[in-house]
Design a protein that fits this description.
The protein is of the alpha+beta class. The chain is built from 13 helices and 19 strands. Strand 9 (about 275) and strand 10 (about 280) form a beta hairpin. The longest helix is centred in the first third of the chain and has 29 residues, at about 15-45.
Length: about 425
Amino acid sequence: MDTTETTTLETKSGIPLDAVVTHAEMMRAFEAFKEANDERLALEQKRAGDGLIDDKLSRINAAIDAQARRLDDITLKAARPAFGGEAKAQRSARALEHKQAFDAYMRGGDAAGLAALEMKAMSVGSNADGGYTVPDEIETEIGKRLTAISPIRSIAGVRTISGNVYKKPFMTSGPAVGWVGETDARTQTASPTLDQLSFPAMELYAQPAATAMLLEDSAVNIDQWLAQEVEAVFAAQEGTAFVTGDGSNKPKGFLNYTTVANGSWSWGNVGTIASGGAGAFASSNPSDALIDLIYALKAGYRQNASFVMNRKTQSAVRKLKDTTGQYLWQPPAVAGGRASLMTFPVVEAEDMPDIAAGSLSIAFGDFGRGYLIVDRAGVSVLRDPYSAKPYVLFYTTKRVGGGIQDFDAIKLMKFAAS
């Protein structure tokens, strides 16, 4: 792809030039990967192993992964909303007052302005243990960045609450229904039976440190510095909890619920499909298990479904073909897009387990309907200039909960013979 072509693409779609170039490199690497893998398969058919081909395949596989990571980084940088400028001009007088008071607190520890503002506002985000809520602009920035870098948050349902627990009612049995003629007698319908799911919001914290020189430097945007310091920590911690969390002082991950073979599925459990091999795909027709996993999900959920797996599992899936010899895994069709598997997007979550005997290494489902993330309104910051002199610590907290809200919407692949 020449410079003129990439510049045109960038002009037309707003995609960064680096992303376009990296995407083109990934596509070329994937073509090389397919050629090398085809050579490997041909040699296996002749029962003659070739270590050189395996090494070549591993190197190309690593190159594709590296380009995917670089593409993710470029896309993430492009997703950053700008601070200041036009947004500052549009900010209301009250929001600007909060911003100025927060800046004074962060830089010099002057809490008088924030205390007065929060008393007037009766803020729902005030932290009973101390600290002050950040301006809405910073909270929005943290939320947008978390969505961009937290894999499960990017596909799950998200709800903001003002309390500590979100309770969602659902019907375990509905009223009696049926067809009747125009003049037939109608029997009295039974009342529906209701139950509820509870999603408590647990405290997640980060504690970035700053030097006095950084805080005194008026050219440093304190809002942006804080958002960038806490985003990676928050994303890593909540990302792990959404997948494997035990629900104790953290969200409950979708892998931590009771699992049953999908043929015996019932509400409250997560259905599983066997891969056909102990710690591996079946030796013959390995992709059949993926087809079974897709069709274990009801049609209403499949249209918005995604695969979730880690990078190692994806490298194994990348080698699979259909009966016509076409690769099932495909790289992103456009820069900034997701790879696909059997036309469904693939979400990389490194907290998913590697393929092993009995592991639940691939999830498939409509996570928007299946998994709910609960965010309590408000992010709080407590300035601590004493505990780590000469550094100033900023104890930053937000409350997050999560769990499965629809047990019909998520299925797992269990790497076992049956």
